[in-house]
TrEMBL record:
The keyword Oxidoreductase applies. It comes from the Bacteria. Residues 3-152 form the Ketopantoate reductase N-terminal domain. Gene3D superfamilies: N-(1-d-carboxylethyl)-l-norvaline Dehydrogenase, domain 2, NAD(P)-binding Rossmann-like Domain. The gene is panE. GO terms for biological process: pantothenate biosynthetic process. Belongs to the ketopantoate reductase family. This is 2-dehydropantoate 2-reductase. It comes from Christiangramia forsetii (strain DSM 17595 / CGMCC 1.15422 / KT0803). GO terms for cellular component: cytoplasm. Pathway: Cofactor biosynthesis; (R)-pantothenate biosynthesis; (R)-pantoate from 3-methyl-2-oxobutanoate: step 2/2.
Amino acid sequence: MEILVYGIGGVGGYFGGKLANAGLNVSMIARGEHLKQIQKHGLEVESINGNFKVKLKVATSEISEVPKPDLIILGIKSWQIPAVAKELKSIIGENTMILPLQNGADNVEKLLKILPGKNVLAGLCFVVSFIEKPAKIKHTAFDPKITFGEIDNSQSGRILELKKIFDKAGIDNSIPENIQLEVWKKFMFICTVSGIGGLTRVSIDKIRESDYLFGMMKKSAKEIIEVGKAKGVPLKDTHLEMVFEIINSQPKGNTASTQRDIMNGKPSELYNFNGYIVKEGKKYGIETPVNRYIYECLKPMEEEARKTKE
């Protein structure tokens, strides 16, 4: 199987590295000094589960230089999907699988606007990892996992084969009964902590300590549940309780990646998180005052960050 990992940040670098370390044919798309050092020295992964270093089949910034892939894993940010999907059109084949792993509730929707539905899978991942320096990924917490499936939740042959690939690479993985529900459960957590984290600029444990901010997080999460239900996702109050069990279990000092991007003046997933809930709330006639407050407060900073990026 030819595997392309597009984006070698914390997600793509860790999972792509695991696949390459298992002897699979892995190519990667990256940019800048990170790419140069990977081309020279290989990709290093420092992990709480064991360190390793791999040489990739191809590491490049040019999509035309990679072999025709059977599987494409997207390790980019959710706001980058439309541009990357257009680029991928030139290399996907009849049976190419495209697996999005980034945070966000509408990644599949974005892909389906540009690419054939038969090529698109749905997925998410759990991993705390980041680029420590060029050519080095550092995994610092939790046992990484990929959850994935067909958009229609069918147990297809290719999904079962993909599970074997992840098993071979030693990647914990699962095929749920309802992949959309799993995507939204994670989205509810990450959206709930990210915007408020970006506003307060403190770690999750510090936000928890404030009764006002903790209540604000609960209101935000309830708005997300109502929007998800309106879109046909079978979210329940038990899922809200589960999300806050995760929030309450976060160790001291933990922050979300979107919060870190906001604080560092980088383009973030604000539009795809709180902004998405505001947009979909309007579409379905659902009031989302907390998510709108967070979104409108952070929007000017996001606009500035994107101007700088351009």
